[in-house]
Amino acid sequence: xxxxxxxxxxxxxxxxxxxxxxxxxxxxxxxxxxxxxxxxxxxxxxxxxxxxxxxxxxxxxxxxxxxxxxxxxxxxxxxxxxxxxx
Amino acid sequence: xxxxxxxxxxxxxxxxxxxxxxxxxxxxxxxxxxxxxxxxxxxxxxxxxxxxxxxxxxxxxxxxxxxxxxxxxxxxxxxxxxxxxx
Lengths: 86, 86
What we know:
The structure is a homodimer. The first copy, chain A, contains 4 helices and no strands. The first copy, chain A, is mostly helical and about 90 residues long. Chains A, B: This is SemiSWEET transporter.
């Protein structure tokens, strides 16, 4: 594995899993009022476009990392939209 | 501009600006207790590695979008670490 691939893989892993601590905290505390839903709407748009970009470029690392990010950020968005109603 | 470039540019813009609504909300409400600092620590690591990746590949769009993300996510991390002490 070249240094580029190592750095790219680490970058992809960190940016993909970054939302997990926020999902865990939201589920544990059931409190999300300080979290901005607009951040997650824009993030979902962003990683959604990166996933499309990956398909256009036939680039599987971009498709996989951003596809997982899209799922995780959507989970957080659903938590935000449902918790804020309570 | 090809469709790839349009989609890639939109993806880069959305993922770069996504944290701005959270920074705005944190400054306006001065409340961040529901926001996970670990999310922003991991995000800073991730976009930091993407910035290094951009330098290794001499890819200016990756350097610029992730460099700005690194600055913005660091701002949010500083807000989190200082607000949580109050």
